[in-house]
């Protein structure tokens, strides 16, 4: 079929409608068909159309000046080769369910195309995922690395369900502040230790880390004195912030997880803030990293996190903190 290029779109006359009806290519306009640059190049590559006065290389050269165009074309081509119908849409592309086409079928995925060096803005990403969910679509990132290999990630915004009621206490336990650690004189078998708080130093002493202490103080399960004077949770938090610039984010996430019945422990060995247990289990199921509102991270760092979490059979979640809300953004590799 012979098409023409008008400077923006590639257009076919009436005979082009068969491409739409049989393969889901393009958009119908009047009696003809309008093709996006990615669609036109793919059809040229497959010898389905010719474009008057342009060969494949010349047309690609015109479009390549558009931001991210070559990567978008590589993703479009890959999705088509996998047997899906794909069209430009919200984000970069929308992908239809297998066997479905525009007009008579439903799309399944919304895809955003990134390079391995692009920056992930968690605020924008979580908003995009929520919008996709409201449209009943799955949100995917298609990441093109520097060797033009493609990796697909499904991104979900999780509202973690509560797994059990948070443990309470009858009366606050007393502790003293040493640096940013609280030291409580408690024998083995106390409720704090049973609920996986602290590290036992000996038969009489339990050491509590800052995030634990702050949470327990706010729950009125722990009272701390410094130089003989009682401290508030906010005073403790201010003191800890001088040693740990991430303590405010970590404390928010730790408290939220505890309130939902999860048990967060340090995730240092995995390069993240917490490894998280759903109750008192022998293995953690999630890695969780707290991120403040406005945080951006290179996609390469997200990729490393996801691969590590997958290798140890855990989910990778970034806990995005807003004024009154925490959104848990999960990344997982997906095979289409």
Automatic annotation (TrEMBL):
Which CDD domains does its entry note?
tRNA-intron_lyase_C
SUPFAM superfamilies assigned: tRNA-intron endonuclease catalytic domain-like, tRNA-intron endonuclease N-terminal domain-like
> One MF term in GO for this entry?
tRNA-intron lyase activity
> Keyword Mitochondrion on this protein?
no
**UniProt keywords, alphabetically:** Lyase
Q: What class of enzyme is it?
A: lyase
The EC number(s) given in the record are 4.6.1.16
Cross-referenced InterPro entries: tRNA_endonuc-like_dom_sf (IPR011856), tRNA_intron_Endo_cat-like_sf (IPR036167), tRNA_intron_Endonuc_cat-like (IPR006677), tRNA_intron_Endonuc_N (IPR006678), tRNA_intron_Endonuc_N_sf (IPR036740), tRNA_splic (IPR006676)
Q: What residue stretches are annotated with the tRNA intron endonuclease N-terminal domain?
A: 2-53, 192-237
Q: Which residues form the tRNA intron endonuclease catalytic domain?
A: 69-152, 249-328
Q: Which PANTHER family match?
A: TRNA-SPLICING ENDONUCLEASE SUBUNIT SEN2
Q: What is this protein called?
A: tRNA-intron lyase
Please give the organism. Answer: Methanoculleus nereidis
Provide the gene name from the record: endA
